[in-house]
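re: ur question from yesterday

yeah so i grabbed the chain u mentioned. its 311 aa long if i counted rite. heres the sequnce exactly as i have it in my notes:
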Amino acid sequence: MTIVYEVIDRLGCGLVGSALIEQISDLDNSNLRVIVIANSKKYLSYPGYKAIDLPLWKREFQEKAKPYSNFDEIFRYLTPSAEVEIESTIVIDSTASDELPKYYAKLLQAGHYIATANKKGLSGSSELCHDIQTGGEELGTRIFYEATVGAGLPIISTLQDLIESGDRVDKIEGIFSGTLSYIFNVFGGGDAKFSEVVKEAKENGYTEPDPRDDLNGMDVARKLTILARTLDIDVEGPPSSSIFPIESLIPPALEKVLSGDEFLAGLPAHDAEWDEKRTGAKNEGKVLRYVGSIDATDEKIKVGLQSYVPL
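ran it thru and got these structure tokens back, copy pasting raw so excuse formatting
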């Protein structure tokens, strides 16, 4: 089995992709070969689909990776002529790319399997999601998307097992953002200002480079869309907030600032509003949490801030 590995260069580091390559490198499996490693600008491959020497991949990538303009070039590399045989392949997508999921159906139809942590495909338009879900029907190829919701937790597979065994799922509710979980655990349980907690989360690497990408609720909304579609609920995905309620935590005055740094600089002016929300919850013996929920009985989805009695 060969693996085509796609890792985007977020801030030039690709931490998730790099960690996974190291894990694959440590596996003692002679049948597992990595034949392509790519970021958003360059890709590394060898003639004749020769396996990449993983212990040396960083140096090899720096010295020998070739630039490419779009994923078509890599797709053509993975689609050899009839005279050339290529083993079963898995394309691993650890990016947040908007473009790569547009190739999922095409990859499945060409005989490639996909393992993805990228939410943009299966939470995208209904048409895109349908194309992906049906893309492997002819050849029996599959997309594995466990990592799109819950990181390493087996949420998707557990939900699929419940459905396949005939159980009825009435409701799903939870905290689906690790970033927002951290922020509200710290903010809700103490006296720190909201702006200080968000800044600390960014400095610790828990948020996106621009924290608004976490605070706008779209990451949670995409995860809820994927879960709803796994339940066979017909729902159009974000970013349209008219599809289902998605509460943004970004103050309206800061929505259009030019950068994440400018956003953080302006956030302290809104700390009083957050202090009031926290005090209101505390007076009721509750804490604030950012929650996503799916009521499967009437197919209603919502994403937003709620108050809960702490466990």
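noticed a couple things. Confidence is low (pLDDT under 50) at residues 9-13. also The longest helix spans residues 218-230.
anyway ttyl
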